[in-house]
Design brief:
By secondary structure, the chain is an alpha+beta fold. Helix content is about 20%, strand content about 35%.
Length: about 160
């Protein structure tokens, strides 16, 4: 099944479940659904997209009505690098990665944390990042993207 079909199918299921339960928000087309997202992250990101009352302050996204600030980190993926390629986080902080493939089709894989996100060219995918344990974690592109694919790596440090 193609990525686009899978995304559509998951979006349709989430839309139906959302309508039936009255909770949650539908997932926009092209947004990653491969990892779970907390309702706090979803509401903050939706607030960011639909309201000018959101503000970006020191890397933390604050929205009126949100229970806690979510730090949104913008990452770009292009042939053959992630930028930034080194990210430092604090254990327990709420973090979302907003990854944009500005050149080529890429993936964002953190094997030790079970995170693998597909990022089609020209699209932006937002995914919650777990910070429940300290350590140094390597990430890399999980979609073969050409001659420099093996060099498309980075490091995430989660500090106590």
């Amino acid at each position: 099944m193609s990525v686009r079909m899978r995304t559509f199918a998951v979006s349709a299921v989430l839309l139906v479940l959302s309508a039936c339960t009255g909770a949650g928000t539908p997932v926009p087309d092209g947004e990653d659904t491969s990892s779970s997202s907390s309702s706090a992250v979803s509401s903050v990101l939706q607030e960011e997209a639909s309201s000018s009352s959101s503000s970006l302050d020191g890397g933390a996204l604050s929205a009126s009505g949100a229970s806690a600030a979510v730090r949104v980190i913008d990452i770009t993926a292009k042939d053959w690098e992630f930028s930034p390629s080194a990210i430092t986080l604090k254990k327990g902080e709420k973090v979302a990665f907003r990854i944009t493939a500005i050149q080529g089709h890429h993936g964002f894989l953190v094997p030790e944390l079970g995170l693998n996100t597909d990022i089609p060219e020209g699209q932006t995918v937002t995914t919650e990042f777990p910070t429940d344990r300290a350590g140094t974690f390597q990430f890399r592109c999980s979609v073969p993207c050409g001659e420099g694919h093996m060099d498309m790596t980075g490091t995430i440090v989660i500090q106590e």
